């Protein structure tokens, strides 16, 4: 990422059969990297988390997680091998049930939690949950952020523990008036939320890439205030999904097209 002209390389590994990747989370420990990848081997029926580990310069597939509580996983935030937060964007059902839930904004998309042995739900369902991110500040306070696409908001939960298990209190709703997608954090603890400027234009873009879909990036402070740091009608990047700030650059990915936008960015303010 330090080289603006660098090109991505495919991870050469023996992938599981019917591997259909979606959200990802990278776990770095002292000596290893583990990449956790949501996959949809059979849409509406089977969903998994595939785990890959880098040993030396090579990657290996080292495990699979699955559970009925993974109803339609969209994104995940891996804290450790024994702590995973996962955002489902819909409850269990077929395409007609998904459309019904979206049309009437029925809240069935749960937060699922893995403690290293079993999965459980943490409550607070939305009508369309999206990105999810665990953070811990310098005072040891733990927070969980979650995108609510239909709510046009990012929700901030403070986490308290009961016998080690996370309990989510009533969230602070950060209304940004656009549908947020994935969430990332910078070195100062601020959250970067990529949003879709128009649901209608996003749907048109799905059907025809020639139709542009606006991308807007917001930076959210821990007190809930936010500011726009990037906006584009879609000619530079359509249907943006993720924004990562790194050493004076802002890297913006997208849902459909095979490139990442590399922008200049100042992290000083």
Quick summary of this structure?
The chain folds into two domains: 1-175, TolB, C-terminal domain (Neuraminidase); 181-268, no CATH class.
Helix-strand pattern, N to C? Answer: EEEEEEHEEEEEEEEEHEEEEE
Main sheet attributes: strand count, strand direction, barrel closure? 5 strands, antiparallel
Mean of all residue-level pLDDT scores = 94
General form: globular
Alpha carbon gap, first and last residue:
22 Å
Number of strands: 20
Number of domains: 2
Q: What is the CATH topology of the largest domain? A: Neuraminidase
Corresponding CATH architecture of the largest domain: 6 Propeller
Protein name: Arylesterase
Keywords: Disulfide bond, Glycoprotein, Hydrolase
GO molecular function: arylesterase activity
Pfam family, one: Arylesterase
In words, what does this structure look like?
With 269 residues, the chain is mainly beta. The protein has two domains: 1-175, TolB, C-terminal domain (Neuraminidase), CATH 2.120.10.30; 181-268, no CATH class. It is built from two helices and 20 strands. The strands form five sheets. Strands 9, 10, 11, 12 and 13 form a five-stranded antiparallel beta sheet that branches. A hairpin with a 4-residue loop joins strand 1 (21-28) and strand 2. The chain is globular and about 45 Å long. The model has no long low-confidence stretch (mean pLDDT 94).
